[in-house]
Amino acid sequence: QVQLVENGGGLVQAGDSLRLSCAASRLTFSLYNMGWFRQAPGKEREFVAGIRWAGGITNYADSVKGRFTISRDNAKNTIFLEMNSLAPADTAVYYCAAYMRDTGYTLKMNPSDYRYWGQGTQVTVSS
Length: 127
Fold this sequence. Notes:
The protein is an all-beta fold and 127 residues long.
């Protein structure tokens, strides 16, 4: 079955940086748009960033624009999330997710539109 495996989470201080990765297996990676979501305790899962199957189009939640960068390497079946200027409000479990590419150029932001999910990686930012 399809597997998405996140890595790179950890405990950091405010202002630090982290780079998350998500490796996909058992799917044709270049057919899928990918996204990063996060979920803090007691809160709903929220969209963080998305990237189109070819990598040319990305979008971000307003809360992370200018601080986070999503990228992908289709040769390695992997996406990344570079997170800079981390703040305590960024503390959450971060998930990568995938949905089959479509003809549109607008990336989906609703978790229910994503078919495959990773198990998540914890990011904790201390003040």
